[in-house]
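Risk register update: the risk of archive-format incompatibility is retired. Evidence:
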Amino acid sequence: MIKVENVSFKYKNSENLVLDNLNFEVDTGEVIAIVGKNASGKSTIGKLISGIIKVKKGTIKIDDLDISKKKNRDLIRDKVGIVFQNPENQIIFNNIYDELSFALKKLDENEIENRIDNALNQVGMLDKKMQDLYTLSLGEKQRIMIAEVLAKNSKYIILDEPTTMIDSTGKDKIYDIIKNLKEQGYTIICITNVADEILLADRVLILNNGKVECEIQKNDLVDKYHLLNEFEIKEPTILKIISELKKQGINIDLNEFSVDELVKGIINEKGN
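Archived output:
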């Protein structure tokens, strides 16, 4: 479990708080989406939880380990992995194998091979194991960055706007990866304002002025999607459709987010 308790934060040389007495929890195995206007502090949360920047006021605990305690930092670094919107900003090495093996150098050779193979298989990139990263598309590079987190056996994964720079085909592959990881019990925080990514979450936290303004359970999204509009977040079109169908007496569960799956749901409902 991740616990964020009374966290306030401001950047150096700024008088304005980015986060203001922020509180929320993420249960093990849960996928949450953190959304909000630009400069609302979404990315700052990811950097704090992953330890990239230090907590100065308040407490963040990962499995009851206080992230601010120096003795816990290595343990937490293994537990939490983060993927940013531009994969090219995270790449260190030219070769995929070298990139993934760098963080695993303390392990024996067989364990390194097993972890890399497993991680690449989960993102559909095993066949490119020895390839150079410059030969890949941006979407493929992002999948390698996810594989790098998986190879470390990170229990908690933070995705900071992971599909913002990727084409539609690449986005679909990332969405499939998130779904599969969710089924395997990974805990995922998706920092995003992308409509389809919101629908992958079990719960949505709307951030405003450095605080959680409100939270919406996935089952309540159909009735409360208008709240996204209030904070300048484009609501998923599929929610509008399901809402209108509900008014016509056609009830569709919001289990998935693709149009094809929606059509199947309508056909099944009509059949009943």
